[in-house]
Write a structure and sequence with these properties.
With 198 residues, the protein is an all-alpha fold. Helix content is 73%, strand content 0%.
Length: 198
């Protein structure tokens, strides 16, 4: 799951959107940070959702649609493809238009910019982050996301090569994403329920 899916889960569980994205930024034990409780909980949910996604039967099956030599990077491609599929079929998952959802998320992250700067060295901008989320609805937006991610890797060409198989897997993802998101929503709620008893 990438940004949009994590934000969708945060919205569905009533948890912190900024915490959902900080899950990709903050490293190490959350208990060792000085983050507010709502952000820390969002990070816990993010990490649990990522772990459940990686071992989910659908994810494993989709990964095997890639050539064996490219499966190492297939997980990254699948994360981005899931966001693309979610954005393409957004009205299937939310009554709030994607544009409004993206704007709300952008402002939520910008309001917590201090924590992003402290733990990740970057400051989210409401307008540009909203535009990023909106871009996922179109194939060029997916391609740009792949390129941005690839340039952060030591071997960018390997990810770009794996991404060339994305269009072949996308129809299957679009059909089965509701099942995956339903399972991830349940997993996110379990983390939230466990925390509420502490």
């Amino acid at each position: 799951m990438n940004y949009l899916a994590h934000l969708w889960l945060a919205d569905a569980t009533g948890t912190s959107p900024a915490g959902a994205i900080l899950g990709d930024v903050v490293h190490g034990r959350v208990e060792n940070t000085v983050l507010p409780d709502d952000l820390a909980q969002g990070i816990r949910i993010h990490r649990h959702v990522d772990a459940v996604t990686d071992r989910h039967p659908l994810t494993l099956r989709w990964r095997h649609r890639f050539p064996r030599t490219e499966r190492r990077h297939a997980g990254i491609v699948l994360d981005l493809l899931c966001d693309h599929a979610l954005a393409m079929d957004w009205s299937r998952y939310s009554a709030r238009p994607l544009g409004r959802f993206a704007d709300d998320a952008g402002y939520e992250l910008a309001a917590q910019a201090l924590w992003f700067a402290r733990y990740g060295g970057w400051t989210p901008n409401a307008v540009s982050f909203s535009a990023l989320l909106r871009s996922y609805a179109q194939w060029p937006g997916f391609e740009r996301a792949v390129e941005r991610t690839a340039h952060r890797l030591r071997r960018p060409d390997a990810l770009l090569q794996a991404a060339r198989h994305g269009a072949r897997v996308l129809p299957e993802i679009r059909d089965e994403l509701p099942q995956l998101l339903g399972d991830l929503l349940q997993a996110a709620r379990e983390v939230d329920d466990r925390q509420s008893y502490r």
